[in-house]
Design goal:
The complex is a heterodimer of chains A (597) and B (134). With 597 residues, chain A is of the alpha+beta class. Chain B has 134 residues and is an alpha+beta fold. Classes of the chains: A alpha+beta (597), B alpha+beta (134).
Chain lengths: 597, 134
Amino acid sequence: MVDWVKTLSRVLYIDLTRKIFWVEDRSDLFEKWLGGIGVAVQLYKEEVPRGANPLGPENAAIFAVGPLTGVFPMASKVIAVFKSPLNGYIAESHAGGRAASAIRFAGYGAIVIKGTSDRPVYVVVDGDRVRFRDAGALWGMRSSETVGRVLREALPGAGYRTIMRIGRAGERLVRYANVTVETYRHFGRMGLGAVFGSKKLKALVVIGRKSFKLPDVVAYREVFKEVFNLTVGPATRKYHDLGTAANVLPLDKLGALPTRNFSSGRFEGAREISGEKLAEESLSRRVACSACPVACIHLAAIREEYEDERYFYKTEFVPYDYEPIYALGSNLGISDRYGLLKLIKAVEDEGLDAISTGVVLAWATEALEKGVVDVGKTIVPLRWGDWRNYIKAVSYIVLQPNDFYQALALGVEEAAKRFGGAEFALAYNHVEPAGYHTGPLYHISLAIGLRHSHLDAGAYSLDQRLIITGGSLPEPEEAVRMIQEEEAWRQVLNSLVICLFAREVYGRATAERALKSLGYNLSQTDLVELGRRIYFEKHLIKFSEDFKPEDIVLPKRLFETPTPLGQISPDYVRRAIAYYFKTLSDEVKESTGRKSS
Amino acid sequence: MPRRLVVVDANRCVGCQLCVYACTSRFGYAGLSKSAIFVRSAGGVERGFVVIVCRACRDPPCARSCPVEALSLRSGGGVILNPNRCIGCGNCVEACDIGAVMWDSELEKPVICTHCGYCVGFCPHGVIALEEVV
């Protein structure tokens, strides 16, 4: 029988300093930790020493896929793990496109990129061959889309490959620069783009043309069909029809759509930038990641007449999702759909994380409004809804012409530290939040979640369930238990690796059966236990990086703006964070994690 | 009545490649590279996708290019591969202008569509179909 773990266990190491690469069989890791986040955390432990500079050669960019990658529907994500230049902790970011299947069928379960190149390079992995190529001609290019186009035409493997690259934001080390994948997907959060930039790595192209003999075709086909039927059913319908933008109107109706720097949960222009309106007026194509029938990627077309010549038009394509609509739309008071799409495009071209950029600009707008800074600092008068000036500000964040924009490039918390206005600087441990003001559980989850991400536990769903059922808030201790249980289970999903939009498709029983068809012998209990162990391992690392939950301060603004579950009580949040700390073992609290640098 | 695989509307394709995975799995493999159907972007996904299938030619150039008569005419169009005869020269790949003769680089032999229609069951968006040849 084919040993599936063996096909997954090859790890490709790429050292940019020495421009060498090698492959190791890491069955030890893939047998114990499955794949994805489980394995990536262990590789991080080996590669990134305590006290490492996130922008130094000692940081590593680790990509990992899992046993289901490219084999089951919606197992379409790659997990990237690295030390975040935004907050200095272990960070995790996920992306789709063709990245996961390309890595898997290039023959690897993980790719580790270490060191720093002395000059700009891009790396091409074509199965067993790895090439270091001069990126001199690509460095400094204004649009990351052009970089993608050049590489697309210069390299082989159309349909089998992923083209990951950074924009100017990554080159210039904006701490929340992203890595764009296949034009419209991203390793969006936590600054992987700056890590690439610091390594002088402009792009990573992976071409995967191998195939692997399945251990039991009959069993595999049976589970595949079953999962496929679920993925085209009601569980994912909303993502297919309107995409994540479907959330705009329901969240606005609840009063949970962050607006003008979280000063309100309702936006009078929500209808104009809703998923419905965008689909009716601007949607040009729906696109999918590899092996995903849902096709949640929504591309808008914007048709624009040149100002200098009549009847001379261009048409550009812009991806939209709920998060950019919140961050660059409602949170900046923009209801002009065209303006919003132009702003998203500008952020896309520069290679910035849309969420962080929107939160940073919202803070800057309010800081200007309140006189914390003057227009000499902001250069352009930032005003709610004025998308033209925001587009200019986006390029200033990248070019950093003065000390104000230099600060903005470091994140909202750092900017507020330097200029004031901390009470309306939205960040949790230096990380700007995604767009849900649903209630206390969501915000607690951002505070205690290991990534400070809305996807850690999806606690906005827990809030929404309470809103719908009209139930009363659980005790904070119970809330923390719910959040932790969900976050631990998601470690399993992120080790398989599946897209979290398929979390309802891959329940415990389905996950168990899918693995079984590939020859794995893991019960549901084993999987739950594995999730807890990964959750624990991540804590060991994070605490060794001087994470102190008692230092978590939630922005004052959150307590001022009512949620659908009412005003958030500071005491409730305090009790939750204290209880969270209590649940952690002494081993975690005293963790030194791994070797010092 | 013989049947053949057809592309109904490539503009409905979202590029998920599940048809490609399905075809590869017919041979007991996971991956994209043993498939007789292929999907790639038309130069950036915003332009849509190219869906490459054998169009079951009545007068197939691939068959005529084979020096060892490993490709015989299939009723309803297209060809049937006799792998025992095939010497892996790759002429058939060159001969097919629409790129529908795929190549298995591990076996060094062509992958020829049998028009079985297994892929059709995994296309959620009505891009491909099996039709009767009249």
